[in-house]
């Protein structure tokens, strides 16, 4: 099976979520949990962006031993210097340097011609290779770039010393088929591409970040970037936990594996949610509160007979205690009986029939029933008798 490197950017792109601001202590706490989760690379921040981020990246680089710590830099010497200062004491330092390659970004943001952009990119990689043993180069807005230009600049930065080439879908614009074709195009048109690792970095503006990341793997990417819970700029980044679990569950299809310790997912997700203050939507894949909850009678009956009828991921796999049978208006007698037994009540068929009828009537008005609600219904029936 092919090994896919997981590059976590919760502490950099994730922290760029509107309203999120992590202090150094909180960043370190998340970094230590990411190390336990088994990511291969963590992007700890953007050292040139502020004194606080510089110190946080430095402390993380000095503490984390089991994965490579990286920091972001624009294609300017001062950013690269700051990144080196922050990362140099780390176990396995690497630089993440980027420059935009799309006509829109080159014209309006950089105000540079394509030739000037190539020169800036090459100079930055050459400069960085004086210090860094590993350099990742990212073509910002790659997915809206012209492919021949993208191929040309990628070839030049590889020749200048880049080891990892990242193809970000910066604005979440691409779809899986097109994204795969970009990887194929680069593999066929760039000299030296076989000597580097290709990386995918997807944003979720059109809700396709996970699908696009998986398409990149199918087309030769050896590294996937993302964040825990999919936090990040605007609609966020690809959710790293979704990708780790998808590769595991569908290893038959993808033939690829990661080092992610799947049973650390829930803990990591909860920590990131708590420290960033970003709530996890209940229906979020893998980590949402409802990801393992069954409400309808047909589903509950199926799961009680055999879990795999409606559960493709077992909750234990990702560190969630167990599934949940939520009693509500769609629930059936089988789940109801099972809940009453689980609460320790001994009830006859006749009693069950009556209590279930009351429950069904109430469920027209009440959305969800707690264990206490169910216990109260049973006790009421027993007392009335
Ligand atoms: O989305 C993006 O293009 C980025 C780059 C800095 C890699 O986050
Ligand atoms: Zn990004």
Automatic annotation (TrEMBL):
Enzyme class: transferase
UniProt: Mn(2+) binding residues: 13, 201, 203, 237
Enzyme Commission designation: 2.3.3.13
Residue ranges of domain Pyruvate carboxyltransferase in the record: 4-266
Keywords noted in UniProt: Amino-acid biosynthesis, Branched-chain amino acid biosynthesis, Cytoplasm, Leucine biosynthesis, Manganese, Metal-binding, Transferase
Keyword Metal-binding in annotation: yes
GO CC, one annotated term: cytoplasm
GO molecular function, one term: 2-isopropylmalate synthase activity
Catalyzed chemical reaction(s): 3-methyl-2-oxobutanoate + acetyl-CoA + H2O = (2S)-2-isopropylmalate + CoA + H(+)
Cofactors: Mn(2+)
Biological processes annotated in GO: L-leucine biosynthetic process
Pathway membership, UniProt: Amino-acid biosynthesis; L-leucine biosynthesis; L-leucine from 3-methyl-2-oxobutanoate: step 1/4
Domain of life: Bacteria
Cleavable signal peptide: none
Record family assignment: Belongs to the alpha-IPM synthase/homocitrate synthase family. LeuA type 1 subfamily.
Subunit structure: Homodimer.
Chain's role: Catalyzes the condensation of the acetyl group of acetyl-CoA with 3-methyl-2-oxobutanoate (2-ketoisovalerate) to form 3-carboxy-3-hydroxy-4-methylpentanoate (2-isopropylmalate).
Protein name in the entry: 2-isopropylmalate synthase
Lineage: Bacteria, Bacillati, Bacillota, Bacilli, Bacillales
